[in-house]
Amino acid sequence: MPHMREEGESEKNVLDRLDSYHVRDIPYDKVLNSMCTHPHHIAIKAHEQFIETNMGDGGLFPGTYDLEQEVITMLGQLLGNSDVCGYITTGGTESNIQAIHAARNSRKSKKPNIVVSGSAHFSFDKIADLLNIDVRKAEQDDQFKIDLNDVESKIDNNTVALVGIAGTTEFGQIDPIRELSDLAIEKDIFLHVDAAFGAFVIPFLDMEYEFDFNLPGVSSITADPHKMGLCTIPAGGLLFKDQYYLEVLQTKTPYLTIDSQYSLTGTRCGAVTAAAYAVMKHLGQDGYRQYVQYCMKLTRRIIERTREFGVEPVIEPVMNIVVLDVGDTDVVKKALEKKGWYTSVTRNPKALRLVIMPHLTETKVEEFLYDLEKICK
Ligand code: 0PR
After folding, report:
1. Which of 169, 270, 276, 348 sits most deeply, having the most CB atoms within 10 A of its CB?
2. CB of residue 322 inside a 6 A radius of ligand 1
3. Which domains, and CATH codes, for the chain?
4. Which of 127, 169, 171, 347 has most ligand 1 atoms within 8 Å of CB, for mutation?
5. How many CB atoms lie within 10 A of CB 243?
6. What is the pLDDT of residues 230-254, one digit of tens each?
């Protein structure tokens, strides 16, 4: 019954009924379209340990508040500058919104615009709507990286931010952030890097990429622990190079134990901060590198095998996202779904998209390849 009854029910009844809902959810083992995964077991423990904490009233939770500062410092260290500031958000969407919110507040423009790549995550469409900003979508080159000439042509006096993506949602591509950084400095514009997915991948790849605070023009970065950071949901990271950008986000909170907030949400889960702290401390860079190397091994295996049966990738994978030219994508996706596989589709060109997360086993990948080969033939 959907309504709340007058008399309560036994704990067992309620929990059993919850189970009956939960078993209908899709287990991750055949999911190839998600950027989230099983949280690391230490993240779950830490999450439980801090379950009641609320970062919305930081003065009541000074311990958890300090922990959050440590997590931000650790994220900054991973991304080229431990002297950053920021906070743990609910995910990539909130981080992107707040980064652009800060850029907009720091520049007085009546008709602000930003320039992003056409392959930007749909959170930038929410930004256009919420912040009343013109979000200009720049062209991409044949490798699905942002076209710098087109970026430059779209900049004007009302451009409050440029955005580069380090790990695009659809192709896992990395925009030329060094060049964007140079452009941002030359034109004196805020540069945001959306590394929601890439932050916990790119530093651990064999190939080196310039994408973070090591570049002098980078003003802010989105880096999500709840994606490849193996943290519990909802954990996003928002980092700013300068304290000033947090200050322009501040709202006065007269009756709290703290006198202002810079977060978009009010009440805010501290448990994910503890979870992020726990996984980062427990795994260390070596631990994350092993997860990334494992995902990249599966990625290479998929490409190698699909090529054998005549299916080519649309781009050579940069990270653990594979995009395959399978012919009629919708038909293949549906046929895979019949076999229990969850995949997704890119927009332009239309192709089969697979996100290769740590929850996939080598055996499952072989089973998937077997099914895919049969379907494609
Ligand atoms: N920036 C990038 C580059 C992203 O890929 C995403 C999400 C975001 C920002 C927004 O992050 P939040 O969803 O944390 O707000 N990318 C995936 C997507 O929307 C997220 C996802 C996760 C999708 C699990 C499906 C899924 O099962 O495609």
Report:
1. 276
2. no
3. 11-39+285-376 (3.90.1150.10), 41-281 (3.40.640.10)
4. 169
5. 11
6. 999 999 999 999 999 999 999 999 9
DSSP characters over 297-321: HHHHHHHHHHHHTT-EESS--SSSE
Name the pTM for this structure. 0.97
Distance from the alpha carbon of residue 89 to the mean position of ligand 1, in angstroms: 14
Burial of 340 (0-12, 13-18, 19+ CB in 10 A): middle
| Residue 323 Cβ < 6 Å to ligand 1 | no
3-state secondary structure at position 21: helix
Identity of the residue numbered 241: K
- Is 47:275 a contact under the CB 8 Å cutoff? yes
- 54: CB partners within 8 A, 6+ apart: 60, 61, 267, 268, 269, 270
169 lines ligand 1 (CB under 6 A): yes
Read off the pLDDT of residues 162-195 as tens digits, 9 standing for 90 and up.
999 999 999 999 999 999 999 999 999 999 999 9
Give CB contacts under 8 A, 24+ apart, made by 142-149: 143/173, 143/315, 144/119, 144/168, 144/170, 144/171, 144/173, 144/315, 145/117, 145/173, 145/174, 145/175, 145/176, 146/116, 146/117, 146/119, 146/175, 146/176, 146/180, 148/176, 148/179, 148/180, 148/183
Q: How far is CA 253 from CA 59, 225, 256, 260, 261, in A?
A: 12, 28, 6, 5, 7
Contacts of 102 (CB under 8 A, 6+ apart): 190, 220, 240, 245, 246, 248, 249
Q: What share of the chain is helix, strand, coil (3-state, %, to 5)?
A: 45, 15, 40
| Residue of higher predicted confidence among 93 and 255 | 93
Backbone phi, then psi, for 340, in 5-degree steps?
A: 95, 5
| Alpha carbon distances (Å) from 314 to 148, 152, 322 | 21, 27, 8
